[in-house]
Amino acid sequence: MTYKHQYIDGTPIHFPLGKIVCIGRNYADHAKELNNPVPTEPLLFIKPGSCTVPLEGGFSIPDDRGEVHFEAEIAVLIGKPLSRRPNEEEVRDAISGFAPALDLTLRDVQSRLKEKGHPWELAKSFDGACVLAPFVPGDAVESLTDIGIRLTINGEVRQDGTSRDMVNAILPLLQHISANFSLQPGDVVLTGTPAGVGPLKQGDSLVLELVGLSRFESRVL
């Protein structure tokens, strides 16, 4: 199924699908579980928009490249251009929505690339590597420091975090990104994953939530 931005009530969002900006190790507990240091400034990498697939209806994962790990994240949809160190009010005004997302990683591939000192794109940017749910409108979220993200697989809660635990909070994070390169309407920022990441398997049943805001059921096909 082709991915297109939409709100949770089914209303289309008429922005082109842009780039996916990801934040590595933005929860200290996740950095520790992978034996990685906590960065002193945001660790950024980009996925192409073409790797995005919808959560609803189920999604597929590669079956010939080793383990595929899930990373549940709060996704932020950009609705207005941001560049050149915007203030927090400008950043807040540019947010069109929030959604739960999965940043998928070919973990075995990533480990081999890291050992060689190579970039991670093969592990992070494959087709289907960004699984994205519909968005809650930005103005429906009162506090950006209290957004919960939860992933349940086969009835077991695997990740349960909140934006208050982020190393870099959402508004300063968007300021940092847009001070280094512009964000455009239709771009999505994945804000990092809490602890609990692990492998997905074909047939897994998932519930992905922004706690109290949106809840979606899906399946690995």
UniProtKB/TrEMBL annotation:
Fumarylacetoacetase-like C-terminal domain: from which residue to which, for each copy?
Answer: 19-220
Keywords attached to this entry: Hydrolase, Metal-binding
GO molecular-function terms, A-Z:
acetylpyruvate hydrolase activity; metal ion binding
Q: Which residues form a coiled coil?
A: none
Which Gene3D superfamilies does UniProt cross-reference here? Answer: Fumarylacetoacetase-like, C-terminal domain (3.90.850.10)
Name the domain of life: Bacteria
Q: Which SUPFAM superfamilies match?
A: FAH
* Name used for this protein in its record: Fumarylacetoacetate hydrolase family protein
Q: Please tell me the species this chain comes from.
A: Stutzerimonas nosocomialis
Q: Which classification does the entry list for the species?
A: Bacteria, Pseudomonadati, Pseudomonadota, Gammaproteobacteria, Pseudomonadales
